[in-house]
Amino acid sequence: MEKQSKTWLWVIGILVVVGVVYLVMTLNSSTPATNESASKGENGPIKIGVIAPLTGDAAAYGEPLQKVIALAVEEINNAGGLGGRMFQFTYEDGKCNGKDGANAMQKLVNIDKVKVVIGGFCSSESLAAVPIATANKVVLFSGGSSSPDLTNVSSYFLRDYPSDAAQGKVLAEIAYGDKKWRKVVFIQEQLDYPLGIFKAFSSNFERLGGQTSKEEFTEGTTDFRSQLTKLRGLKPDALFIDTQTPAAAERIFKQLTELKWKVPLLVSDAVTGDPAVVEKNATILEGALAAEFGTDPNNATFKHLLEAYKQKHNVDVPYQSYAQTMYDAVYIVRDGIKAVGYDGEKLALWSRTIKDWKGASGLVTIGSDGDRVSGHIGKVIKKGKVEVYGM
Amino acid sequence: MDLIMQFIINSLIAGATYTLVTLGFNLVYGATKFVNMFHGVLAAVGGYTVFFFTQTIGIDLWVSIIVGIIGAGLVGFLADRFIFSTLRIKKASNLVMFIASLGAFIVLQAVLAMVFTSQFQSIVHSVDSPRVYEIGSAAITHIQLLIIITALFSSFGLVLLLRFTMFGKAVKAISDDEEVAKIIGIDTNKIIGYVFFIGSAIAGIAGILIGFDTGIQPTMGLAILLEGATASIIGGIGNLYGGIAGSFLLGFVENFGIWKIPSEWKGAITFSVLIIFLIFRPQGIFKK
């Protein structure tokens, strides 16, 4: 008898749990319907999605950039929004990888029913989100993805951060033309971003008549001695240290110094983007070449961004070259909706007409391939500081 | 010729590093007969202890190194007391021990990442002035030379300890048959505890030296362990001499291998050698 009542207790318990779960799920799924009507309604907020890395290593970029976007949105809404309608941004965590980037995009498109998404930040997020954006006729606007694989990837994708192809091209031209180097060797990390830079550099450098070769290493490698020894044996004119993060580059700097190999260096903007690393490795980096998508301290909008951010958060804006493009992306989206309305198809067409749009990152022009036209400029490291090349 | 000398030096450094990992790994395997994954994270414990004491607290380097070695030894010893010996008493299979050690590895690695962040850290501050000795046109740093010397001395010391002391004889007895060792009056649990302490302390030494040479990261343990375990299997798992021979063989094959083929194949070379040994000589270079 006691056993039977226990069984009943179990059955009732399970039914209660199932009931609660069902209720919660129904409540949740009813939320998008309200959102949808809110977005479509004449007076409701205009909903925009954001995909950025908010957890993990790359949250170092994502968190401050979320604040930059929030700052721009606040400014727009304080000025009365768009015809009295406020902007409402929904942030999703793309975790700097394709899987979570795609999940975030699915959620924004299917549940939040947005027509414009700012993101992804990492190239892997954007690459995974583009097919979903295209299939659902939603505009995907990245302020940070730089992989050359995103060039001309879809008519629904655009970016105001330039492609790495520009970085490789600028460096190849300086290396061949100015420096008269004919053989450049690479030590390259096996990831999308360093690979993009290698491809862009080698195709341009070889087209000019130069010669490149490379040794690759996997993420997390700590011993580069034999790779460096082998590259040294090729007697190159210069060595390109092509890593995803400054940490990997620093390990290579250390072993390069230990091997007593003195060779002109080229580095990617992963290194020059971190002033502390440049300063710490000033000796080995003296004279090293880089190409950066820089900032213009005299630009009034950029100056305003720096001041407003500092006033609100009491710290300087980190990763300023990305902050300026993120900030501009929000305003460009506003102008787009103002011009053609909240419609993915129309916004996609409009995006290709953006020409000399004036923002914090200078004049923005989007080419027919969705890329920002112009961008990286040559830089050189002198006494631990990154300066414009040839100045 | 210049290149060959540098490749030989690079191979010796790699071989010596693997040796420091295999010594403790083989010692523990010999006594307990399970693949102790936890061994890898002990290297990180050694490295981070020195990092914490020198950079955060500011204690003298040599004192920190001694604390680091003893610290790694103690963590290994405590892991045995609280996890592995309990499982041994319950007659857990080697597979269960392996999974438990993997679990403990992941937990401790996560703790290190929480305390010290996942960022790559350098125990030494300056990258500009390492002491470098030149042999012809090849170069070796002071710390790399120290890795090779430490590996040789640790190997020699461990061999002497196991050959000429009562402790060594007890370890051999346990390694041959734990039950028989118990019957003849050896306190096997105590001896295995000591084995864990010594093996883990050597892993700590490896971690500290690697930390000085290239730097530390919470996840450094797995890569170190994989190389060390591969060297152990090549040499003959559980056999100290085999571990040393396997380590240097692996160091040379890896470094000379990438001389002629692209370096992204380095990992593939390592595991190809392992597979060749597993198929054609599963007992390794030296049979235990």
Question: How does this model look, in words?
Answer:
The complex is a heterodimer of chains A (391) and B (288). With 391 residues, chain A is α/β, with parallel strands linked by helices. Chain A has two domains: 46-162 and 297-364, Rossmann fold (3-Layer(aba) Sandwich), CATH 3.40.50.2300; 165-292, Rossmann fold (3-Layer(aba) Sandwich), CATH 3.40.50.2300. Helices cover 50% and strands 17% of the residues of chain A. Chain A is built from 14 helices and 14 strands. In chain A, strand 6 (183-189), helix 6 (192-208) and strand 7 form a beta-alpha-beta unit. The longest helix of chain A is centred in the first third of the chain and has 39 residues, at 2-40. The radius of gyration of chain A is 24 Å and the shape is globular. Chain A starts with a helix and ends with a strand. Mean pLDDT of chain A is 87; it is low at 26-40. Chain B is an all-alpha fold and 288 residues long. Chain B has a domain at 15-118 and 137-218. Helix content of chain B is 77%, strand content 3%. Chain B has a two-stranded antiparallel sheet. In chain B, strand 1 and strand 2 form a beta hairpin. In chain B, helix 1 (2-32) packs antiparallel against helix 8. The N and C termini of chain B lie far apart (38 Å). At the A-B interface, strand 7, helix 7 and helix 8 of A face helix 1 and helix 10 of B.
Q: Could you give a short description of this structure?
A:
The complex is a heterodimer of chains A (391) and B (288). With 391 residues, chain A is α/β, with parallel strands linked by helices. In chain A, 50% of the residues lie in helices and 17% in strands.
